[in-house]
Design goal:
The protein has twelve helices and eleven strands. By secondary structure, it is an alpha/beta fold. It has two domains: 234 residues, 3-Layer(aba) Sandwich (Rossmann fold); 149 residues, no CATH class. Strand 4, helix 4 and strand 5 form a beta-alpha-beta unit. Helix 3 crosses helix 7 and helix 8 crosses helix 11.
Amino acid sequence: MSTNRRNPSRRDVLRAALAGGVLAACAGPQPRAAQTAAVARKKRILILGGTGFLGPKTVAAAVARGHEVTIFNRGKREKLLPLETKAEHLYGNRDPELPADDERGPDGALLHPDGRPKGLEQLVGRTWDVVIDNSGYFPRMVTASAQLLAPHAAQYIYISSISAYATNPDAGGDETTALATLADPTVETMGKEYENYGGLKALCERAAEAAFPGRATIVRPGYIVGPGDPTDRFTYWPIRISRGGDVLAPGSPEDPLQWIDVRDLADWLVTLAEHGTAGAFNAITPAGANRWGHVLQTCVDASGGQAKLAWVPATWLEEHGMGGEDAFPIWVAPTGKFAGFHRWSSARAEAAGLTYRPIDDTVKAILAWYHGEVDRRVRVTRELAEAKAKAGAPPPPPGPDPSALRAGPTAAKEQQLLAAWRASGK
């Protein structure tokens, strides 16, 4: 999900021109009618990151709505992805204890002619209306960024995660649910099983709020899905189903499911920036509005109806070692500690302007995007290997097939499970 359930200093006071934005941010969520009536002025938006999955969509949405966008990152992914050319690009490492580890931009030009790595200090002396932080995973780095920018920006939007909560209340939770904690708040590793992810996100939230009291916006997405997703978690389903045949559908058609389309999330982040909306929000489709069976049937219909869903109960999958939360992407059996995982309230976000496109739109967009994405992955893998060879570096160890889905069971594993299920006679 922005979320991965388990399964990677102070300066002058704000300019007077930002005062209105500060007051709006401190006012908290506005009624939807007031938001609709408000006319957004042109905003200066700084995005920390901006080159992953959510970032490019946010940049594109902000530019399309007439805002000035600056992105700050290390420049690495820009060599691999087509990015919005109307955004200003600054390069450096947001970790104040490390130098920028890539000083060349996408065109190969040396970014820093003096040869000295640059970091967050490049941001000093400028002002922004809004900072959107979608690359903050460790509180020390979020603290450094937020404290540096606090005198120079009216609002700080931090992209957290539903995983920041300590538990999944059985009947569903809202933004008042207790957050996760860590025994060691200084840890800077996700842990072998990503067990630190939620606690680190919660600490990052606190760092943003401490630097921007009353001016911080905390966004907790569920699974972020849609075209451009590098994880293939939701993507597995429309692509696998488009290949036809019997498809193992885990669980029950009535199991709940929640997600957020990356394009809806990006558009909403710009809305939050335009209105200076502060507070904490779950960014996820409405609880109870979607069922697992409807989602998978939508995938069948969108791909021509050639696949047949073979429903296999969660209890049987558990008995055969495929009942864990990561055995099948996106879906998880709504029992035990996961009873409320897909039942989170999104009412507060909806009141602040979050809207949703139908799942049919998301599925069709993924199907239209994916095959070109496979070509890109194959090309990039080849080009990186060629670049290493040209530089005289040893060849990289064999990696996963770049043309294969990055999530979900392999075709062989799926067929093995289906055969065993049929043989069981249940």
